[in-house]
Amino acid sequence: MENSKPYKIPKQIVWKAYKKVKANKGSAGIDGMNFEKYEERLKDNLYKLWNRMSSGSYFPKAVKAVEIPKKNGGNRRLGIPTIDDRIAQMTAKILVEPKIDPFFHVDSYGYRPNKSAIDAVGIARKRCWKYDYVIDLDIKGMFDNIDHELLMKAVRKHVKEPWILLYIERWLKAPFQTETGETIPRIGGTPQGGVISPILANLFMRYAFDLWLTRNHDKNPFERYADDTVVHCRTEQEANQLLVDIDARLKECKLELHPTKTKIVYCQDKERKKQYPNTAFDFLGYTFRKVLIKDRLGRLQMNFIASVSKKAGQALKDKVRSLEIHKRTGSKIDMIAEKLNPILRGWMNYFGKFNRSAMKCTLDCVQRGLIKWAMCKFKRFRKHRRRAEEWLLQIRKREPNMFAHWVLYG
User: What's the pTM value of the predicted model, to 2 decimals?
Assistant: First the structure.
């Protein structure tokens, strides 16, 4: 009976958690159970999970370790829990997020309701016009190195349900399991890929960084998206001292700044002309630097603004290239559009918010890919690139919305 269980967990919350986890998709954990298999006995599986969680006998399985390449070299380890464990974590998240989130700092943007990366970019952009210097912080492996004891101290301040406290500790201790079957014990961190991990990381950083900075350096605003953070300063001296203080604070919390990736940046523009070693930084896919653009009166001016970064542009090129469109000679042009547009729209919606014209260089490469496809598909174009270009131009005039990027070509 539901009332006889030591922990009172409503069944409808578990059902709601399952629907949220399914909507997020994701691959199988170490048990190989995907959603298709899981749903063959959906009611039984959910009942067993609820029963174990309510009785205290629920223990998470090892987390599947997947190494993915980082954009700047090296690998990042993602942890993929089983579907059961993702549902269990989502059950806890549904209950604790409304209680914890209101305590988070207004300038903490990562993985929060009604907050986004583009919000953080927009605020950073405005503050760079008011403050001459930025500290571009890079925390070494934050998700991997969060201290469990300090984290649980923060969790206990906000979470009172005994079963959630119990299972958070178990999730933190669940080991990694590699593709070769090797088990790696976890003595710190909360794995990227876990449903509960973003809330736990934000809670840790609230005490390790956000509150500390607000109390001790209230004149230095910041934007933080998980471990990606920029702090604004008025002078070089202020920036140098604050960086020393931040480094010491994070070491107190058993975190470490990356020695070469962390830097102080001067926001150089038409009025701020001082020479400085660093005059640009990347934040959430955007590069902040001086750019020659037209002002409201049509005059060319050097302004410090945010534009799509080279890395973000290259990532789109690589994704489009991997589709090998030129080999799809059996497809009609509307089928090619159907394949490309979801990718293009998502990318353009994000990187078109600021300095929209900067996207064109990357999207020109997509257009060249379409020209190559036309040349491969039609014999009459194979040695006549210009004809392929003209053919696509005629289609664009007739159907300007066929491809998402055509809106930039007028």
Answer: 0.92
